[in-house]
Amino acid sequence: MNIEQMLAVLDPEIVSRLKLAVEIGKWPNGLALTKEQRQTCMQAVYAWEAKNLPEAERSGYIDRGTKEEDEHCDSHVEEPEFKPIRFI
Question: Which Pfam families match (predicted)?
Answer without folding.
Answer: DUF1315
